[in-house]
Amino acid sequence: MTVKVYAMTCGWISGDFNLMMADAPGRIRFPVPAYLIDHPKGRVLFDSGLHPDIQTDMRGRAGDVMADLFEVEFRPGEEIEARLAALDIAADSIDYIVNSHLHWDHTGGNTLVANAKIIIQKKEWEAGHVPELIEQNLFNPADYNHGHQIQQIDGEHDLFGDGTVVTVPTYGHTPGHQSLKVKLASGDIILAADACYFRKTLEDMHLPNIVFDKVKMLESLKTLRRLQTAGARIFYGHDPEYWQAVPQAPLELT
Ligand SMILES: [Zn+2]
Questions:
Q1: Please, are residues 253 and 246 in contact by the beta-carbon 8 Å criterion?
Q2: How far is the CA of 105 from the centre of ligand 1 (A)?
Q3: Residue 36 and residue 51: Cα distance in Å, rounded?
Q4: Are residues 98 and 178 in contact, defined by beta-carbon separation less than 8 angstroms?
Q5: Confidence band (pLDDT; 50, 70, 90) for 2?
Q6: What's this model's pTM, rounded to 2 decimal places?
């Protein structure tokens, strides 16, 4: 069974580095990744980037807290629908969105992918509907409450039952964060998302300030380390240097 994977960039965000890596000085500018996984039995998106309204009205769409913390570079043509169209893929032909978690830069494009079933950890989906947890995690229900069919999973889930696309629970960044393991001909890759922002996060086990549960997040970094030691390649969630070396769609990841 062969699976094709494409990396896409749905804008760039800038903010204080210490949000992303505790005590790091200065600012950081980082990419917003999304991935298309083309499996013979279905098309899967891993995360959907930012909502297109962010292009014209960051404060109105994301709210004052986010607008004060982050600046965004996000132009027409960079939203998930356009990135897919550039691959000759209609957004409404996507079968599944695996959302790593509910943050705005991972679910904002869900609304553009109308027919997909959302695959999300039960813990995360539940947290996205509890007012205190919405506030604590800076979730925006407008990003994810669109009436999609929702499949809530608990831990590992083998999407096609053949071991090619498997969710890896990596809780901690948010209550029910998950990463995704994909089997390529060259070996396993792990799309870590925000379980691990940077290469250095994993090398130094260095947590960000944006974290829901530090103990669980460290456990998740250990899980990623274990997978890496076993030979998997880790794709970091928001690492601008690492991202430069990742081939962008229409090139396939190999
Ligand atoms: Zn993120």
A1: yes
A2: 5
A3: 17
A4: yes
A5: confident
A6: 0.97
User: Which residues have a beta carbon within 5 Å of ligand 1, which is an ion?
Assistant: 105, 194
pLDDT of residue 245: 95
**CA gap 64, 118 in Å, rounded:** 28
Q: State the CB neighbour count (10 A cutoff) for residue 64.
A: 9
At 132, the amino acid letter reads E
Asked if 120 contacts 176 with a C-beta cutoff of 8 angstroms, the reply is yes
For the segment 86-131, what is each residue's pLDDT rounded down to a tens digit? 999 999 999 999 999 999 999 999 999 999 999 999 999 999 999 9
Mean pLDDT, all residues of the chain: 97
What CATH fold (topology level) applies to the domain 4-244?
Metallo-beta-lactamase; Chain A (3.60.15)
Q: How many CB atoms lie within 10 A of CB 59?
A: 11
Burial 181-191, CB ≥16 within 10 A → b, else e: bbbbeeebbbb
Cβ atoms of 54 and 61 within 8 Å: the answer is yes
In angstroms, rounded to a whole number, what is the distance separating the alpha carbons of residues 99 and 59?
Answer: 24
Element (H, E) at 127: helix 122-127
How far does residue 103's CA lie from ligand 1's centre (Å)?
Answer: 7
| Alpha carbon of 238 to ligand 1 centroid (Å) | 7
